[in-house]
Specification:
This protein has 2 domains: about 5-130, Ribosomal protein L10, N-terminal RNA-binding domain (Alpha-Beta Plaits); about 130-174. Helix content is about 55%, strand content about 15%. It is built from 6 helices and 5 strands. The protein has helices at about 5-20, 35-45, 55-65, 90-100, 125-130, 135-174; strands at about 20-25, 50-55, 80-85, 105-115, 115-120.
């Protein structure tokens, strides 16, 4: 790879790191071509961009963006690394768990979730259980709507009780 090609790769990686708020650095060292193809297909179906890159180029791209912010990620860049870029924070972790039901790879080296860092494969359950932004918004809306629904429900049930009493009184009066 020439110096110009390396610089283009660093630029491209840096652009993707800024484009996506969430990324996972994974170990895909022992995946054969068939398993790699299956992983790529699964990533495509879940809107996760999978990219294999040299550790040194990943390091330079991260340092180009902000050396201090990504400093803790640098020690995880060993072996064969693939980066999973995603708009939704928990999708890559769920994808990895699904894929690992059949295989023990890929393993999570590190994950960057909206400027929070998770290091190690032991974080997979925590990452998979994170709520996405849309899930959190839906929960807040449901909580806000709950009291209003209760009031409407009580008014409707009270109204039907009152109508029943009036009907009974009317029938007795006749």
């Amino acid at each position: 790879m020439t110096r110009d090609e390396k610089n283009l790769e660093i630029e491209s990686l840096a652009q993707q790191f800024t484009q996506f708020p969430n990324f996972y650095i994974t170990n895909v060292e022992n995946l054969d071509s068939d398993k790699t193809s299956k992983l790529r297909r699964l990533c495509f179906n879940k809107n996760v961009k999978l990219r294999v890159a040299k550790n040194n180029l990943i390091k330079k791209a991260l340092q180009k963006l902000d050396a201090n912010a990504y400093e803790s990620l640098i020690p995880t860049l060993k072996g064969t690394s693939a980066i999973m870029f995603s708009e939704v924070s928990n999708v890559p972790a769920k994808l990895i768990k699904e894929f690992r039901a059949k295989d023990s790879i890929p393993a999570i080296k590190a994950a960057w979730i909206d400027s929070s860092l998770f290091i190690g494969d032991n974080q997979i359950d925590t990452l998979a259980n994170l709520k996405s932004k849309n899930e959190l918004i839906a929960e807040v809306i449901a909580l806000l709507q709950s009291p209003a629904k209760n009031v409407v429900s009580q008014l409707q049930s009270s109204g039907s009780k009152l109508a029943g009493i009036l009907k009974t009184l009317e029938e007795k009066g006749s």
